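In this notation, each integer encodes one residue's backbone shape. One such record reads:

___
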Amino acid sequence: MTQTREAFEARLRQIGTERYHDRHPFHHRLHGGDCTPDEVRAWVINRYQYQHCIPLKDAAFMSRVEDPDLRRAWRSRIEDHDGTDTNEGGIRRWLRLADAVGLDRDYVASRQGVLPATRFAVEAYVRYVRDKSLLEAVAASLTELFAPKIHAGRIEGLLKHYDFADDSALSYFRNRLTEAPKDVAFGLDWVLGHADTAEKQDAAANALIFKTEVLWAQLDALWGAYVEGRIPPGAWQPGEGLASPKAA
């Protein structure tokens, strides 16, 4: 049975309540100040793989969209991450965070030390958006519904517990507090308007579940490798990829 617009939105929001990665113990550890410097660095390195691929995901989506109004609305997402003449962009802001935690930004940008599970999860998301229906692709982006809360908590926790944290280092998260609501308002309205059968609503809900699993899998990989110490071959090893000390 097809749900009303209001009931279907409540269903999507419940998925976030139950499955979003703010519930993962790694985030509790990070935001509570319990991560070691190397655990923070591992998070920065591996999350960069996700940041790097978000514009690729959005470009893959736009390449399939024939409606110019939808393309026009969507392209700001690429600009938010890649930057423009007047906007530094999320990728460069993330590399400023890498600077702040003592990593060499060229090493981080190379993605050489990314965990295999992180790489597979992120690439699976890009393929999902490229190959699934437009409705499923947009619905998968709706984890942004829940992002402002985690960004606000992250800013508060990092500022409280870590010496590296300042306005420059955390600029990525501060900017997403205003960028994400803009994106999600459009995406949510589009999904609610286009998921007009029970089958389409199920597909959209499952797409959102898939995306929460992509995010959760990345943190599971971090926990196993750098909290429990099972670092797989080829992944970043503490002590690698550090910035050279600045000359006095």
